[in-house]
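Hello Y.,

Per our agreement to keep a running log of every chain we model this quarter, I'm adding this entry. I've kept the format consistent with earlier entries: sequence first, then predicted structure.
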Amino acid sequence: MSDTGTVQRIRHPEKRNKPDNPIQRKPSWIRVKAPVSKTYHETRELMRDLNLTTVCEEAACPNIGECWSKKHATMMIMGEICTRACAFCNVATGKPNPLDPFEPFNVATAVKTMGLKHVVITSVDRDDLDDGGAQHFADVITAIREATPETTIEILTPDFRNKPGALEIVVAAKPDVFNHNLETVPKLYTTVRPGARYFHSLRLLERVKELDPNIFTKSGLMVGLGEELSEVAQVMEDMRVADIDFITIGQYLQPTIKHHAIDRFVTPDEFAVLEKQAYAKGFLMVSSSPLTRSSHHAGEDFARLKAAREKAIA
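Predicted structure for the entry above:
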């Protein structure tokens, strides 16, 4: 906090002395309409009234107009300041504020007010906390279960930096879907996701299945960062070894000139090829398109995921 009480929002300080990365013009298949609907504005006001943060806004998601117009919002808990500075992410980096003890109740209230049948809860990284925020995730899940028992819950978590017992706390709260994004291929981690480790993220998802085989596991990749499609195929293989059920693959979009540059725009035809490859490798569910994001169409995808498991068991 500054002397005036405002948060100092620091973005990628390691890049300050480096040349800016010009933002490329988007191809026709990646453009979306600006949000204008009445329901969009109602969703926005509800988030403000309950003092909630959404990843839709913080990460500058291109699907915000579509989702909010359907009263779908992905809530980002534990504040809007992240302790890490990933080169792809638009969320601010700095020293976070203390956890809001009323946030679990407020999230549950929003879920009930919006009448959500499926909700996605994500968070910033909170490496400053002893458990990485695991108990807060569990408290939010519990509050939603109490307010709307019929709502299915999907969580998109950080890696908790391997803090003892953190993952076990979250799994014990029994979310329906446990998502943790690998984000990119191993060779790009040092530049794209320097605060994380590829095999630790992979092991975290594998461990979820060991703790509770009934929880669906999910992970996502961005493409267009400089990876080869053969490397994406290898990540798919790694995910399947870890028994991950659902993979999402979407185009990386550069938020600002300070962020990692786009290497190229992957074509819709290439995304279709990646989808076929993923299903061939045994994923129960695949979402692969330029505008695919972790929580886009999450409710519909969850229904398809359940149906795919039931079919596989039958």
